[in-house]
Amino acid sequence: MNPKKIFRLPVSFVLKPTKRYIPIAQKFAFSHVIAFMWMIFSIYLSFPWVEEIGAFVTLPAAFFIVAGIAYIPGYLNAFMVFSLLFDRQPAIKIPQPSDPVTILVACYNEEMSIESTLGYIAMQDYEGELKVIVIDNNSTDNTSIVAEESGKKLGINLTVLHEPKPGKNNALNSALNYVDTELLITLDADTLLHKSAIRYIVGRLFSSPSDVCAVAGTVLVRNSRGKFLARVQEWDYFLGIASIKRLQGMFQGTLVAQGAFSLYRTEAIRKINGWPDAIGEDIVLTWNLLSNNWKVYFEPLAVAFTDVPESLNHFFRQRSRWARGMVEALKVVKPWHQPLIYTKYLTSSNLIMPYLDIVYTFCWIPGLFLAFFGYYWIVGLTTLLVLPLAMIVNYILYHYQKKVFKTLGLRIRKNAFGFIAYVLFYQMLMSPISVWGYFQEIFRSKRIWK
User: Fold this and answer.
1) Is the Cα torsion angle 267, 272, 275, 279 positive or negative in sign?
2) Which residues on adjacent β-strands are paired with residue 187?
3) Contact between 253 and 202 (Cβ < 8 Å)
4) Is residue 109 located within the same domain as residue 240?
5) DSSP label at 253?
6) What per-residue confidence (pLDDT) applies to 178?
7) CATH number, position 273
8) 234 and 205 fall within a common domain
9) CA–CA dist 136, 275 (Å, integer)
10) What is the pLDDT of residues 253-270, one digit of tens each?
11) pLDDT tens digit string along 62-91?
12) What is the pTM assigned to this prediction?
């Protein structure tokens, strides 16, 4: 589920962490001061641009447009840049945890992938006991049969449950009654774990303060050698989503402990009555945890690989569902009800996402189209100068992620064409899809799990 970005530009930034420890409150304050200074400087430089647009649509409308295209995204992006500049990921203090863990795998027609998923669980280098519960959520294929046969063949401690009521939340909640371990992991049925994923994610939880109730793992693209759309998404997961989660985790409020691969304290899940009946059940669950004064972290070394949509239709359904899930979470858990100032800020940032996506969709994209015909009212040479910066910043983050891969014994696939398309065109696809997701939630259209 939606790891919905709180920052719209597909740009991330990581430098070498400072050697001197800086308290989180100071990092938060310093980053805001610098971001506001950047925004004020941007406003000053944009006066001629605003006046030019205002000649056609009035000055208030021009300010509304430029704020959505430049001021607010610039501020949010600057906050992200300088926050990550101050970041220093603490070392995992317990590198070889051995507490028993239960893994929940909710399935709907997954007979083609469930054996591989279980196979990668069996190859974990985790020293503790792993119990696996596969929940067949009203499948019409042989998911449960394949799961049972695979569990026996692999020697896994496996239980197969049947949940006839459709909905991922129903599948997970039915399995929650069978969990007898302190920790549980949710894993999508088409997601493959790196051999050390569970060791790292559990080690991060036990190396954290006692009020950390969940750790989000790193989900990357498995089918990045597939069609063009999957190749572009590889960079979204590898650079964009991973850096946003790192930022949120630094401020103790990762906004989505995604159902694809995350670790939770079982008792915390039970105290909030399990997974909610929501299209974005994982984001609402995470916000409920945060609103109970718990914290959610992120572990970059706990890596899993999932299949992403290769068809535009499937991608459209998935990402509009993510956008809808964000709005749903905002309605269920109000940002101002969050107890920590960091999570208040992080969740409140999502309130302006619909505005930014609407301006991008109905102003920036048409403005880009007009620029090809010589009308530079919205998009001109000055605004396009951000593209080299975007390339440089993503290149820096690439080298950070390369170090993560080196630690895990992985190699980054060569995908230059996908990277260029990600930087130049990805947001033009994402914003209109997100707008459609917002409208789906407003008009309460039918929910679709997959």
Assistant:
1) negative
2) 261
3) no
4) yes
5) B
6) 97
7) 3.90.550.10
8) yes
9) 17
10) 999 999 999 999 999 999
11) 999 999 988 898 888 888 878 877 877 788
12) 0.90
% of the chain beyond a pLDDT of 90:
69
Structural domain contains residue 440: no
> CB–CB of 6/264 below 8 Å?
no
- Are residues 255 and 157 part of one domain? yes
Place 12 in a pLDDT band, splitting at 50, 70 and 90. Answer: very low
Q: Are the C-beta atoms of residues 14 and 243 closer than 8 Å to each other?
A: yes
Q: Which two tokens stand for residue 448?
A: 């679709």
Same structural domain, 119 and 49? no
The pLDDT, as a whole number, for residue 13 is: 35
Token pair 């190699």: residue? 411
Same structural domain, 242 and 370: no
pLDDT at 385 over 80: no
**386: pLDDT confidence band, cut at 50, 70 and 90?**
low
Other Cβ atoms less than 10 A from the Cβ of 40: the count is 12
State how many domains the chain has. 2
Closest by CA to 94, choosing from 241, 199, 20, 195, is 199
Closest CA to 261 of 201, 195, 329: 201
Looking at the structure, tell me whether residues 269 and 318 fall in a common domain.
Answer: yes
Mean pLDDT, the chain, whole residue set: 89
Closest C-alpha to 299, from 200, 406, 210, 221? 200
Q: In terms of residue numbers, what domain contains 31?
A: 24-89+348-429
Backbone angles phi, psi at 297, to 5 degrees: -105, 180
pLDDT digits (tens, 9 = 90+) for 229-244: 999 999 999 988 988 8
**DSSP string for 7-24:** S-SS-----PPPSS---H
For the chain, report the end-to-end CA distance as a whole number of angstroms.
10
Residue 225: CA count within 13 A, CB half-sphere: 3
Q: Within 10 Å of residue 242's Cβ, how many Cβ atoms?
A: 24
CA distance 143 to 417: 37
CA dihedral 159, 259, 299, 38 (to 10 degrees): 180
In a domain, 203, yes or no: yes
Close Cβ partners of 278 (under 8 Å, ≥ 6 residues apart): 169, 284, 325, 328, 329, 332
Residues 355 and 338 in one domain: no
Q: Provide the residue type at 224 as one letter.
A: S
Question: 265-269, 335-339, 410-414, 445-449: which range is least confident on average?
Answer: 445-449
Please give the structure tokens belonging to residue 128.
């503790």
**Per-residue pLDDT for 130 more than 80?**
yes
The verdict on 183 and 41 lying in the same domain is no
